[in-house]
Design goal:
CATH superfamily: q2cbj1_9rhob like domain
Largest sheet: 7 strands, antiparallel
Distance between the termini: 18 Å
Bound molecules: succinic acid, manganese (II) ion
Number of domains: 1
Order of helices and strands: HEHEEHHEEHEEEEHEEEE
Structural class: alpha+beta
Number of strands: 13
Radius of gyration: 17 Å
Helix content: 10-25%
């Protein structure tokens, strides 16, 4: 899939694009089956939350090897409809995946993600330039009740703002300070709720401010994420690098695959 010039401009202006029905019901079903299988594994890159230990986040599904590797996620990552827009928005054909994850956000127990920029963390991984973007694929219907994402349109244009380490949630992360968020929200258009049926996708810039609420509903909210970086922007060496499942060291340029999710 080739983005139009207008879509590329829209991405540059708003920091995101939404793609209704990018994946079919059958493809979503395949990705869901795989997510369910991986969620049952006892692996270093499968994280849980809540009193019952429901799965929260799992990584490396796109990988060639390892316990959480899934050919269906690998195929999705390399499919032209995902890879090509990532290449176009990063302005280069040489891109790789910094990480791939599924966030399960289980019914009732699945918790919030505070407002943050992904590049808040990725810069600390040793990455210099915000030449990064993420594809989100909805594996469930995402609603405001079940904790869909919110994007703050245009917020990527102000660049990376110093984050603070927030460990108040089940998956600690570098989040945006309340004063930064209030100023940004007062200056920019209303946040957009990223809602839609399963198979909807969104591509967003690594400096776009985004967040999601607690899942208050009785059904899970599963999202798959493919985070792309330009190969030329690979991280420099840092002291105590994060594990490979969040900061990949496979910097080989990706080669476009078939458009089928096997
Ligand atoms: C993220 O921002 O990385 C994940 C948020 C979510 O899945 O709700
Ligand atoms: Mn994020």
């Amino acid at each position: 899939m080739e983005l139009t010039e207008r879509q590329v401009e829209q991405f540059q202006r708003d920091g995101f694009l939404i793609f209704p029905a990018l994946f079919s019901a059958e493809e979503v079903e395949r990705l869901r089956e795989e997510a369910e299988r991986v969620a049952g594994l006892d692996a270093e890159c499968v994280f849980r939350e809540g009193s019952s230990g429901v799965p929260k986040t799992m990584f490396r599904l796109h990988a060639e090897d390892g316990p959480t590797a899934s050919p269906a996620y690998r195929a999705a990552a390399h499919a032209p409809r995902i890879l090509r827009p990532a290449q176009q928005t990063l302005g280069t054909d040489e891109v790789y995946i910094h990480h791939c994850k599924v966030n399960m956000k289980a019914a009732i127990e699945g918790s919030a993600w505070p407002w943050h920029q992904d590049f808040g963390t990725w810069h600390l991984d040793g990455i210099e330039e915000p030449s990064m973007a993420t594809f989100l694929v909805m594996l469930d219907e995402a609603t405001e009740m079940n904790g869909c994402l919110y994007f703050l349109p245009g917020s990527h244009r102000d660049g990376r703002v110093d984050p603070y380490f927030d460990s108040s949630t089940a998956y600690s992360l570098w989040a945006s300070k309340p004063e930064t968020m209030k100023a940004a929200m007062n200056a920019l258009p209303e946040p957009v709720a990223v809602k839609g049926p399963p198979g909807t996708a969104a591509l967003f810039h690594c400096n776009l401010l985004h967040a999601s609420g607690h899942n208050l509903s009785a059904t899970d909210r599963w999202h798959a994420y493919f985070c792309f970086n330009a190969c030329a922007n690979r991280p420099r060496d840092v002291e105590n690098p994060r594990p490979d499942y969040v900061r990949s060291t496979d910097w080989r340029p990706m080669v476009e695959g078939a458009d089928a999710i096997a």
